[in-house]
Amino acid sequence: MDTLSRERLGLVLLLLLHLSTVSTQMPTGSCTFDEGFTQCDYQQDPYDDFDWTHINTQDVPYVSPHLPHGSFMYVDVSQYDVGEKARFQLPVMKENDTHCIDFNYLLSSPDGSSPGTLNVLVKVNKGPLANPIWNVTSYTGKDWLRAELAVSTFWPNEYQVIFEAEVSDSKAGFIAIDDIQVLSYPCDKSPHFLRLGDVEVNAGQNATFQCIATGRETSNNKLWLQRRNGEDIPVALTKNINHRRFAASFHLKEVTGQDQDLYRCVTQSERGSGVSNFAGLIVR
């Protein structure tokens, strides 16, 4: 082999090595928890009641039969009081479009009762925590289920996803999370909202937000308009625009200056949730 051929072969090998390294890197915000919690660039919320716990079942002598095997984050509800909450948060993210976050979860207990509630919250521009955009309270068993979040945000806004476990009055049980993935492409099962625009009206008039999403609206989906302060407004009307897009309308009657705030659209099913950007209601 001559010198030129050896140089070309070396360049090809370097390129293959680089591609292999890139393909095995996890996207920013993703984590399998195989290397522990601290390697994920996630944070426990310092203002909650207690912390989520990381476990690798290979490293402990006893594992409850109501937990799966592997490395994941969990809450043992028997250790805490009713109503107490634990939260951990993903890094702040800024994407100029809709993309997808999916994750594994389970809620398990010895008697098949609900151990509590798993909530997902999305905080925008370091603002206040609004109500959850997705939650589950029912017993799921020790097998992982998967859900996805279709988050629509647009430059220059940034957002942060927060996982919250809330303890019920169950005497024993577990809430667990694993394999969080931040994907650069749209979700498969959750609708994606198009950009929500501001609404401007005079005081005393009615205001209408219209949320348009890609995906088919179904009777199993819950739709609502979420105010930044936490108030949820039920949907007034939904209609299919075509086989790939639907619209949802939300009415606020005889608005005043106290109604002026930021609002966003949310849709939820057992498979996941979609959430739009915040838009302003401007009352003149």
Overview of the structural elements:
There is one protein chain. The chain has 284 residues and is mainly beta. The protein folds into two domains: 38-183, Jelly Rolls (Sandwich), CATH 2.60.120; 192-283, Immunoglobulins (Immunoglobulin-like). It is built from one helix and 20 strands. The chain has one helix spanning 3-24, and strands at 43-44, 53-56, 71-76, 85-89, 97-108, 116-124, 134-136, 145-153, 159-167, 174-183, 192-193, 199-201, 207-214, 222-227, 232-234, 237-242, 245-252, 261-269, 272-275, 279-283. The strands form three sheets. Strands 2, 3, 5, 8, 10, 12, 14, 15, 18, 19 and 20 form an eleven-stranded mixed sheet that branches. The protein has a five-stranded antiparallel sheet with strand order 1-4-9-6-7, with no helix packed on it. The radius of gyration is 22 Å and the shape is elongated. The N and C termini lie far apart (79 Å). Residues 1-24 form the signal peptide. InterPro entries: ConA-like_dom_sf, Ig-like_dom, Ig-like_dom_sf, Ig-like_fold, Ig_sub, Immunoglobulin_dom, MAM_dom, R-tyr_protein_phosphatases. Keywords: Disulfide bond, Immunoglobulin domain, Repeat, Signal.
